[in-house]
Write a structure and sequence with these properties.
single chain, Rossmann fold
Length: 273
């Protein structure tokens, strides 16, 4: 099977970036060199692993799950069906955390998933430490694996808990910050998502009827664990600015909205009034 053949199969499956994905598959499964692939697009590649990977992608399984790892903020993360796929948009939150955390800070990463927020922040702030929390044991174990892989395991602890419960952080010392990219898609929107998104854990996507269930729980139950002058930093949906500003005001916070490179609303940084 040639590079051209793979691109054709992916395009027939309505995969938009078929050329780039074909190269990534060849690099991963055949140790092919990108420049060589483009120079010799008719060279034949074979192997059962590559063939199976192409079948999975044609079925619209996320490429990241097929490869088993993905890049984020300069780091590499193991990913599978137990976690949300790290996305470049979330790097905006990490950038904000890195410049906002005080020296020697300890922060919590709620709904940690792959651990990418906490781990990439710690990689670029060697003076900080963190607690990563998730509801699912397999997801938390994946985050542990990523912490070891990226060399921050000594500064990152883990807790299995449900942040919708008021006792999720019981016994913890106050934090300098709480970071979170929680589920924030409205339940009614989930059926209309792309096939790839539907393959990701529903629990990592479903933010309830209004998309605000997890934001509300964090503010109501866990904001009390912030130190004086501490902050909460959320990733939010492109259409959630007014909702988050109203919710922040309701619980006594100001809200500073941040934008991604496309100019879309992406983060909300909350501080106590």
């Amino acid at each position: 099977m040639t590079y051209k053949d793979i691109v054709c199969r992916l395009k027939n499956a309505s995969i938009e970036d078929a050329e780039s994905e074909a190269v990534l598959l060849l690099e991963h499964y055949c140790m092919a060199n990108r420049a060589h692939v483009f120079s010799f697009p008719d060279e034949d590649y074979s192997g059962p692993a590559l063939a199976e990977a192409i079948k999975r992608r044609v079925r619209r399984e996320p490429l990241q799950y097929i490869l088993g790892e993905w890049g984020f903020f300069g780091e590499s993360y193991f990913v599978d069906e137990n976690c949300l796929i790290p996305r470049a948009d979330t790097e905006i939150l990490v950038e904000k955390a890195i410049v906002s955390l005080p020296h020697g800070a300890r922060f919590a990463d709620l709904c940690t998933g792959s651990g990418c927020i906490a781990i990439s922040t710690l990689r670029h702030r060697e003076d900080c430490s963190a607690l990563a929390l998730d509801l699912f044991p397999k997801t938390l174990e994946l985050a542990r694996k990523n912490a070891r892989h990226n060399g921050v395991e000594a500064r990152l602890s883990f807790r299995l808990a449900d942040i919708l419960r008021s006792d999720a952080l019981d016994g913890e010392e106050p934090f300098d910050a709480i970071l979170s990219n929680p589920p924030y898609i409205r339940t009614s929107v989930l059926p209309s998502l792309a096939k790839e998104l539907k393959a990701e854990p529903r629990a990592a996507l479903d933010g309830g009827e209004d998309g605000l269930v997890f934001y509300r729980a964090i503010l109501e139950h866990h904001g009390k664990l912030l130190k004086e002058n501490g902050f909460i930093l959320f990733e939010i949906g492109f259409d959630q600015q007014s909702d988050l500003e109203a919710l922040a005001a309701q619980y006594g916070y100001t809200a500073e909205i941040g934008y991604d490179l496309s100019g879309n609303v992406r983060t909300a940084l909350l501080r106590k009034i």
